[in-house]
Structures
1.
Amino acid sequence: MENSNFSDDCEIKLKTKKSLKICKILKYYKELDSTQIAAKKLANENFEEGIIIVAEEQNKGYGRTEKIWNSNSGGLWFSMLLRPTIHPSESSKLALILSIALNRILEKKYKIHSEIKWPNDILIREKKIAGIIIEMSTKRNIINWIVAGIGININNNLPEYLVDTAISLNKILNAKVDRSYFLSEFLIIFEDLYFDFQKNGFKQFFTEYNDKIAYKNKQIIVDDGYNTIIGKNLGIDIDGMLIVRTDNKLERITSGTVRLL
Ligand code: BTN
C-alpha cells in the first residue's frame, strides 16, 4: 500500500472506546482512486479482517454495475475488509444487513425515516443518501475475502446531475454532520449484526428489512441486466430475493436495479 498520500491529520477517526473486531485499523487518506481498490489490495496481501479504509475524496470511486460514484470532499467513503465464515452464496445478504445497519443509525441516532431500495440503496424522501457495494474473492467455495464499500452523502455538495435523485444528510438536518461520530456509531451497530448473522443466519433480519423496503406493494420495474420485470413489489423472501408479482406469476429476483413504475 502506498503511504505517500496517507494522512495522519485524520478528519475522520473512530470516536468510541469500544474495541471493534471489524475495525482494528482505520486508515484515512486525503485522496485515493477508490477505497475499494485499496482494501482489495490489502485483502490480496492477506491482511486480517478488521481494516477500514476511508478517503476524503476518491477520483475513481465506483458503485454497483461499475457506475461512477461521485465522491467529492465532505462525504463518508469507506471500505471494510471482512472474512466472514459464511457460504459464498450468503454474501449478498451481507449487503442487506449493511442496509439495515444504515437504516438503524439514521432512525435511531438522527431520527430520520429512511427506506431501503432493494437490494441496498438507502433512500430518504425517495432520494439516495447511501449506496453499498460488495466484492468478494472465493477459493474452493470458501470466502477468501469480502470488501464492503459504503458511500454516504453526509456533508458533500452534490453535482447538478444528481440533485434530483440524491441527497446529503446535512441538507436534511440543516447542519454539518460529524462524520467520525456517524462512522463510529455505524460500526458499533454493524458489528453486532455481522456476528449475529454469521451465527444465526439471515432469518432474524427478514422482517425488519421488509418493514423498511421502499415501494412495497407498488408497481416497479426491475432490470436484472438481461430482462426487465414489471410487477408489484412484494418485498424479499427469507433468502433475500425480491419477489415481484407480474401479470401471470411470481418472480424471484436475485439481483437488479429497481425503479418505481
Ligand atoms: C452503489 O450504490 O452503487 C454503491 C456505491 C458504493 C460507493 C462506495 S464509496 C466507498 C467505496 N469506494 C468505492 O469506490 N465505492 C464504494
2.
Amino acid sequence: MAAFPDIQKIQYEGPQSKNPLAFRHYKADEVVEGKAMRDHFRFSVAYWHTMRGTGADPFGPGTMLRPWEGAEDTVANAMNRVRVFIEFCEKLGAGFFCFHDRDVAPEGSSLAETNTNLDTVVRVIREEMDRTGVKLLWGTANLFSNPRYVHGAATSSNADAFAYAAAQVKKALEVTKELGGQGYVFWGGREGYQTLWNTDMKRELDHLARFMRMAVDYAKEIGFTGQFYFEPKPKEPTKHQYDFDAAACINFLRAHGLEKHIKLNIETNHATLAGHTVEHELEYAGMQGFLGSVDANAGDLLLGWDTDEFPTDVYLTTKIMLTILKYGGFTTGGLNFDAKVRRESFEPVDLFYAHIGGMDAFAKGLKIAAQIRAERELAKMVRDRYSTWDSGVGAEIEGGKHDLKSLEKYMLGKGDVTPTGSGRKELLENLVNRYVL
Ligand code: XUL
Ligand code: CO
C-alpha cells in the first residue's frame, strides 16, 4: 500500500502554475551553466527529520500524523518506514538521502543485536535504492541521543563512551559503503562543554582528532572512498561545541593533519548561530578548498536557536548558489534538506509542500546566480575595487618585492593615502535586486 496514495510524482509546471504540488522553477533536466539542475543541486532528503521528526518540543509531545507508523519501535516498522521514505523521495524527485544509523533501525539490547537490526533494515534500503535509483549522499552515526553519550562521544570524559562510539562509527562506515554512500559526516553531537571548570579541553580535542583518524584509517582499510565531512555548529546541545564554525573546524583539521581527508558540510542555521551568514561560511571554506556539502535550511533570527526551517528566501538561495558556482559546484556533496516541518504542520502532505518550496527556491536562486555571473557586472565591480593591486606598488607587494623598509621609503616619497573607490554597498544591493526582483 502506498503511503501517499493521493500524491503523484511532482511535475514541473512552470512559473504560472498555482498547483501547490508542482514545481514552478525546478526542472530537473533544465541546463544552467552547462549542467542539468538535478546535477547542480543533488537534492537530498534527511531521514531524521522527514521520517523520525515527531514534532515534540520541550513544552509538549509529538503532533505528527504518520499513518504508516506502527505503535512500537520495532525492526518490522523500521523496514516499512524505509519503503515509505523511498516512495517520498521518488515522488518528490530528490535523487539522494542522508541518514544516521539510529534513524533507520532501533537499538537492540546489546551492540551485537543493534548491529543485526541495522543490517536487516539496510538490506531493505539497498533493495529500495536499487529499485528506484535513489542514492545515498552521506551516512553518519548518532553519537548524541543515547544516555551513554551524556558527556559526549569522542570527547567524553569516559573512555568507554569513546570506545562505544568507535564501534558505532566502524559499523556506520561499513553500512555507508555497502549503500554506495558518497560521503560520511562528523557533526559534533555532544562534543563540546557546558563548563570549563570540569573540562580538559586539550585532552578532549586530542581525543576527537584520534577518533577521526581512526575513521579515516578504517575507511581506507575497507575501501570506502567517499568524502568525509566535518559539520560546524557553535552551540546546541552544549553551550560551546568544538566544531564551532568553518574557521575553527579548518584549524582543527590542519592542526591534526586531517586536512587532506576531511572537508566541511556547511549548514545555514549553524552559520547564523555562530554569528555568521551561510555565505560567509561557504566562502571561507571554499577559498581554502574545504567546501564539500551543504545542509540546506534556514533559521529564525528572532528565535535564535536551531529551528531547521525549510529555505524559501530567494536571496538566501541566490547567495548560496553564487558561492557554490564560484567554487565549481558539488562533486561528492549536495544540498541536503536538514530541515523539518513545524509542529503545527502535522499532515503528511506538509512534507511535500516543505521540500517543494525548498527545491523551487533553490532553482530560482540558481537561475538568478547564473545570470549575475553571466552578465559579470558584480564581478567587474569587485575586481575594479582592487585595481590598485593590479599595477604599481600593489602588484609589487603581491609579487613579494617589498618589505617594511621599502614601503616606508615609498610612503615618505608619496606623502599620504588618497581614499579612492566608494564601497557602493547601496548600489550593489540595487544591482542584485535588479536580478532578483
Ligand atoms: C544537528 C545537525 C545534524 C547533522 C548530522 O544540528 O545538523 O543533523 O547534520 O548529524
Ligand atoms: Co546538519
